[in-house]
């Protein structure tokens, strides 16, 4: 019997699609939802399922930013063939995304037993939601929002890429929250920070989904729930991306900060009262 039913996969796909790119922690929300549905959050197949359906959200990024991605990849290809093309920002940016992904790959492989074990606790998720909200608020206040996407540098990409490690080690911190906060501290404007977070998430999350696929299929989750969860995640994530880019163009991140504080406090309450197991 599959560890996750098709109906549960639909719910989890919606949660993943809504939260993957909002700075509220998709991993944290998935773990909370799984706990409320009595799905064991530390089960190997469930952890694998969560990683695999992220690929649906990443596919939404690929579709939404298709023209940008084609432009960047084309510039990278031209630069590999012709040294004169290497002065263009898009060529450099492609390499920066590759380099900025390496730290999270190394840490993810080295710390996997901790990530799948004690760091996957809902207590950690609750604490990370609250701690991450503080970081996000400070970053939004500190940032001068004066630099656009064309002003990004290798240093920006590496620092923002390395910040993904926080979300990897502390589920609930939020990958998008960590990357956007770091970009804001580096004085990127909110739209540039959000787009950089999207682009840096493509290789990291795709790689994680492919890596975990064997565990999801081999340890108890059927192909049907995986397929349904991934497709639902794709559709919901596409709508979420479009909404977020419009939102950050006109608003601060204060609404996300407040939401994270409330969810973190509620989760602490559910854990303390035994409604949810750790």
What distance separates the N and C termini?
Answer: 24 Å
Along the chain, the helix and strand elements come as HHHHHHHHHHHH
Shape: globular
Helix content: over 70%
Number of strands: 0
Low-confidence residue ranges: none
Would you tell me the overall average pLDDT? 90
How many structural domains does the protein architecture include?
A: 1
Range of strand content:
under 5%
Summarize the biggest pleated sheet. none
**Radius of gyration from the CA trace?**
18 Å
Structural class: mainly alpha
Keywords: Antibiotic resistance, Cell membrane, Cell shape, Cell wall biogenesis/degradation, Hydrolase, Membrane, Peptidoglycan synthesis, Transmembrane, Transmembrane helix
Protein name: Undecaprenyl-diphosphatase
Membrane topology: Multi-pass membrane protein
Transmembrane segments: 46-66, 93-115, 121-139, 192-211, 223-245, 257-277
Structure description:
The protein is an all-alpha fold and 278 residues long. The chain has one domain (8-272). 76% of the residues lie in helices and 0% in strands. The chain has helices spanning 6-19, 26-36, 44-64, 66-81, 89-110, 112-116, 122-142, 154-169, 175-185, 190-218, 223-248, 254-272. Helix 2 (26-36) packs antiparallel against helix 7 (122-142). The two termini are 24 Å apart. The model has no long low-confidence stretch (mean pLDDT 90). This is Undecaprenyl-diphosphatase. Catalyzes the dephosphorylation of undecaprenyl diphosphate (UPP). Confers resistance to bacitracin. It catalyses: di-trans,octa-cis-undecaprenyl diphosphate + H2O = di-trans,octa-cis-undecaprenyl phosphate + phosphate + H(+).
């Amino acid at each position: 019997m599959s560890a996750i039913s098709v109906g549960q996969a639909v719910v989890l796909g919606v949660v993943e699609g809504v939260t993957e790119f909002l700075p509220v922690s998709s991993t944290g929300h998935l773990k909370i939802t799984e706990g409320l549905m009595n799905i064991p959050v530390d089960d190997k197949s469930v952890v694998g399922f969560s990683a695999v359906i992220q690929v649906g959200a990443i596919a939404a990024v690929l579709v939404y930013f298709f023209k940008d991605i084609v432009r960047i990849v084309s510039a990278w290809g031209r630069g590999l063939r012709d040294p004169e093309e290497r002065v263009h920002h898009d060529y450099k940016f492609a390499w920066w995304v590759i380099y900025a992904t390496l730290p999270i790959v190394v840490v993810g492989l080295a710390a996997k037993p901790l990530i799948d074990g004690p760091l996957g606790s809902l207590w950690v998720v609750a604490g990370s939601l609250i701690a991450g909200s503080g970081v996000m608020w400070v970053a939004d206040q500190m940032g001068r929002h004066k630099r656009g996407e064309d002003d990004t540098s290798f240093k920006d990409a590496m620092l923002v890429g390395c910040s993904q490690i926080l979300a990897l080690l502390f589920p609930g911190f939020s990958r998008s929250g960590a990357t956007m906060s770091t970009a804001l501290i580096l004085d990127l404007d909110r739209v540039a920070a959000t787009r950089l977070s999207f682009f840096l998430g493509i290789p990291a999350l795709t790689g994680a989904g492919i890596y975990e696929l064997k565990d999801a299929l081999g340890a108890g989750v059927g192909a049907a729930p995986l397929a349904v969860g991934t497709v639902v995640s794709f559709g919901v994530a596409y709508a979420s991306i479009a909404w977020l880019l419009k939102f950050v163009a006109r608003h601060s991140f204060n609404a996300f900060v407040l939401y994270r504080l409330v969810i973190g406090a509620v989760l602490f309450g559910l854990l303390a009262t035994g409604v949810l197991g750790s």
